[in-house]
Structure formats: C-alpha cells, structure tokens
TrEMBL record:
One of its GO terms (cellular component) is nucleus. InterPro entries: Daa-tRNA_deacyls_DTD, DTD-like_sf, PAH, PAH_sf. This is D-aminoacyl-tRNA deacylase. It comes from Holothuria leucospilota (Black long sea cucumber). GO terms for molecular function: D-tyrosyl-tRNA(Tyr) deacylase activity; tRNA binding. PANTHER family: D-AMINOACYL-TRNA DEACYLASE 1, D-TYROSYL-TRNA TYR DEACYLASE. It catalyses: a D-aminoacyl-tRNA + H2O = a tRNA + a D-alpha-amino acid + H(+); glycyl-tRNA(Ala) + H2O = tRNA(Ala) + glycine + H(+).
Amino acid sequence: MRVIVQRVTKASVMVGDELISSIGRGLCVLVGICKDDTQKEREYLARKVQNLRVFDDESGKRWCKSVKDKNFEILCVSQFTLYAVMKGNKPDFHNAMPGDASKQYYEEFLSLLKKGYNAEKVKDGKFAAYMQVHIQNDGPVTIQLESIPDIHFQIPENRVGPRAASGSKTPVAVVRGQPQDRTIEKASGYIAIFTSAFNGDDTKQKQFLKILQDYSEGSIHHIPELILSAVDILHGEKELLCGFSGFLPQGFSIFLENNDLQQVRIRCPAVEDMSVEELKQHVEELKSNEASASQSSQNKVTRAMEELILQLSRLLSS
C-alpha cells in the first residue's frame, strides 16, 4: 500500500459539476492499493496518516503536531495510478489491486481512519469516478508513505543468542520485523534460520556477509545487484529469500509467485516485477550506465541491514 500525504489549507473533490467533498486545513491523502496488500498494510498506514507530525504547535515549533493533535480534517482520494510501472513510455497498472477488491479494501482503510480519529473529520472522494481534485498545498509539504511487509522469522528451539544449534528446526518463537523497529530481534531471528537451514556450515554465511559488506562499502553499487547475489546464495531457501526483503530499502522485495520456489520474483521501485533472468539483464544495464552508480537512492543501507552485518560479523569472528 502506498499513500501520498499533502498538508493543505484546503482541498476538494468534484465529479462533473458536483462537489463530492471538501475540507479546510488538514491532509489530502492519495491512496494506492497493491494487489498483494493485506490487513496489516492497511492498519499500519492508517496509524501513520493519523499520527504523521507535519503541523506546527502553538508556539510555532515545526513538525511536532499531527492532524489529530490539531483537530484538522482528512480528505482521502483513491488513486490506483500510484502503482504504475512503465512499459516503454506507457504506464501499466497490473500491480494495483483489481476494482471490486480494491473498493472494499479502500473502504476498510477509511473505516480505520474514522475509527482511530473522528468520523466527521474524515472525508472521501468517489471511488472509481473521474474526479477533479483541487489541492491547495501548504508549504508545500508532500510525503510518500509505504507499507512494509510484516516479516516473521521462526527461531529454532534451542537457539541461544544469534547462534542456533545445528539442524534444529523446531519453532518456538516468532519475531516480527516492524517498520523501523526491532532491528536486533529481526537480525538475530534471520541469522538463526540461516544457521539452521545450512546445518551450521558457515560457508554460506561468510558469502552472504561479504556481499552485504561489499554493498555497504560501495563495491556493489546497486540494490538490484545485491539482490541478485543474495538470490544466488540463498537459492532454494524460501524463508531466507523472502525474509531478506525486510532488510532492503523501501520498495524492494523478493517474493515467490504462487508460493513456488521455481518462480522467484523481484520487485524494484518504478519497474515491472522481474524474474531472476530479467533481474540479471537489469543489473547489466545498471552496470553499463556509469551515472546510475552514483545515485544515492540505490545505495541506502537500512538500519536492519546494518544490524544484520554487525551480528553476522560477531558470529563469524567468535
């Protein structure tokens, strides 16, 4: 799920000559729904929108009050085009959730906003209609928020610290990686699965640590190149492949089409989902374009990845 939040002095939605909704000061929220979104994505972004601190307090201190704190209004507008990917010069929307399902999902998102705030303060456009959206941006302030998949790791039964007993596969705990939270538990849980999957053989761990360090230090310039190396090392390990998404920058992920290990797919921002072979071609194109190697957006080391590198380094040096 992806939303564009704009701080506004006023906003309104028209369909033809009919005024559908209007608000004064508050937030205008453009809402995009992905075909893979679940209840957790909806709940996470509803909380984020309500608590996003983009307003000043009474003394003029900036970025310290939410729409709820200020008792302002929210205008939501459904916008499937937020999940466009380009096929040449033409946008394609296959990643957006289909009509009937997305309508229900969107209505439930609105219900969460109303329940968590004030139903009278939350307004709406007209789903699937051709709308004219009038936004008077205040600032301007425009922020993109995106849900992050809930990554869960099953920890072997007799794991103590980041090292797991060889061959143990009995799950006794689940560590859920929340956005910008629990990075230590997320990393240790992932390493526990790693150790169990390869029966304590640290060869794969060393290979994996090296590509993470190479990316962190700049020897690997692009996230897609890092993903390609990781897919090669983690081949055949479903939890490790999909779980690695929780350590990547926002917008990047690895998933299995139809839950099939033979159909590994990679998602990158602003491009169509790729197979491993297509990813290889994409990486070659990036390498051939020297300018792209300096793009900071492709060279971000997340907090979770930093923690994973730290814990792996400690484990392998012990």
